[in-house]
Amino acid sequence: VGLVFDRRVQHGRKRPTPGRFRTRVLTDGVTPSLHIDYKASRIKQYHKLGRALRTETTINNTRDFKIGRRLTNLPALRQIGFSANRRLLRVQRLSHDPITGADAFHTTCDPILTQAGDRIPGLRFTDPRVHALLHTLLVFRLHLHGFTNRDLRQTTSELLGTAQPMTTTQASYDLRRLRHHGLIERIPHTHRYRVTNTGLHTAMFLTRAHDRLLRTGLAQLTSPQPTRLRTAADAYDKAVDQLAHQAGLAA
Fold first, then answer.
1. Which residue from 196, 207, 205 is spatially nearest to 135, judged by alpha carbons?
2. Cα 234 → chain centroid
């Protein structure tokens, strides 16, 4: 109530805020509706004819918001009701936007074009060299004075475990990719780089998702021995086949 109406709700025995504060647990077959009461004002939200979500705000006593009852106060009351509706919708919306996450993933993994028309290759999620670079960023984040081309060559070569170390040209190529994708930035008037906050968060998430989720999950799915994930996948395939057979369709 306090979040939606932007008013302070008093608790306790002395001068508590009047109004009904209740929670209703819905059961199957009940059309959900939301009722928020603040003193003599109410917000009601429900499904209109099962097609649209309707939000109604009713202010029965303007004194609840320290506003008079003259017609000249209608614009102020309208603003209060409009703001309450907007706050309610902000509370109800998703805490994350999947579309934004997809854009962030493509921004990192896909090639980009600079204003000068240069094409900067992306950081492909399945490339072992890219994951070595991401792991390197987690190490370099702890370097107070940043890192150089030489530091990148040495650490990345060790993570890749290749016989031939990375060359200066290859490191410059990777530094250019990391910088244009916003994962690192160049320290002014130096040849050193530092990891950005975006680079740290991106590297942490992508490396963990790759090492702990994808590789582990695919290993369980392709394992010849029974695993928990393989058993669940087989059971799902069997259930789909049975459903198709019952429906008279070709599995």
1. 207
2. 31
Sheet with 52-59, edge to edge strand ranges: 33-38, 41-48, 52-59
As its CATH architecture, domain 100-222 has Orthogonal Bundle (1.10)
More confidently predicted of 188 and 250: 188
Assess contact for 87 and 4: CB atoms under 8 A: yes
DSSP run (H or E) holding 113 = strand 112-113
Domain boundaries, the chain: 2-92, 100-222
Question: pLDDT per residue over 100-142, tens digit each?
Answer: 677 888 888 999 988 888 899 999 988 999 999 999 999 999 8
On whether the CB atoms of residues 62 and 74 are closer than 8 A, the answer is no
Phi, psi torsion values for 33, nearest 5 degrees: -145, 155
- Write down the pTM of the prediction: 0.57
**Tokens 């918001």 found at:** 65
Residues 21, 39: Cα–Cα separation, whole Å: 10
Q: What phi, psi does 125 have (nearest 5°)?
A: -65, -30
Q: Which SS3 state, helix, strand or coil, does residue 21 take?
A: coil
Cα separation, 79 vs 89, in Å, equals 15
